[in-house]
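Second opinion, please. Pick holes in both lines of this record:
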Amino acid sequence: MDPEDISIDGNDNLWVVGKLASLGSYVVKYNRDGQALAKFGVPNSRAFRAIAVNVQSNHILVTNFGTSSWFMPIRVSGIPVGSEPVKRQKGRRTGLVLLAGACLGAVAVCAVLMPLVYFTLADLQVKVDKLIDERSQKGLEIHSDSLGETVNGNEDRHRRGAGPGDRPPPPPPRSGAVYVRWGKEMCASDVETLYNGVVGAGNYNHKGGSGNYQCLPLDNVEWNKTQAGYQHHSYMYGAEYQGGVGPFSTENMPEGITNPANYDIPCSVCHVVGRFAHVMIPARLSCPQGWYKEYSGYLMSSNYNHNSNSDFICVDGAPNLVPGSAANENGALLYLVEAQCGSLPNGPYVNGFELTCVVCTK
């Protein structure tokens, strides 16, 4: 037997429709134990393609009945299979098919008694399971509740009623990679800006203190249990561009400014949803295959001849400047980084060239 569709009625009976080459189109009703309770068949017709059960009116509805694609109600009271509904054949449960017909208008389809035919319920179950999967994938759910399945420690859902466990799970969090875009006051338009601020670090002339750069927010700065004056001997300074404009683009600088020297450096902290790793690659302007380019620019760090050293950071190649900040305070200082060959291999690197960088996410 080749089932085309299935349906479950309010009494947990399973209805199957399809076509068997030697018998024609069929409808079979099974109880929860897999026992065939009633069968109907129409020879020399196209396969029944779909079925729906109406318990209140005691009818079923099938499509593609006879030679046309239309609906045909059939009474579901059915014909009992007989005194021996289940037999054994090679160790597997089998059902005995007894067919009956009906009459429809001018189409004379009379009741017939067909030869006894065996089919294996195990084979049918495999096909029914496949149909259930296909229907579920199409959004036509067959609810396990109607089959009396239990959940949460064998507690029946119908008895305990709806509860928190029945609610759909919350949507997944909007998680992703977070990175700092050095030199830019805002992240890209398709990336969330968590906050923006200015670059800070230790003083260029101090022998101690921090060696890494921070993006300090400008809005909603919060304090807690502060003391006036200096007691702890560790300080944060604003960072300035040093040197000429070099290779930087001036397109994002205020009108009339062609040299970023002595201006404070903005920054923004960016959250990109759906990508969970990020990397800064020096000496590159493009990302590996399968990675997204967030921005590219130039490596910057502290001066080799100053007392403090610091991390290398990737500053955007078309940076912003903090307006009105060209006072040359000389706190933390950022310089373009140049290649030194000999210690670096010649060929890929060239003496004195400013090193590029790119930030990638995946």
Remarks:
- The chain has two domains: 2-147, 175-219+234-362.
- The helical segments are 121-137, 157-160.
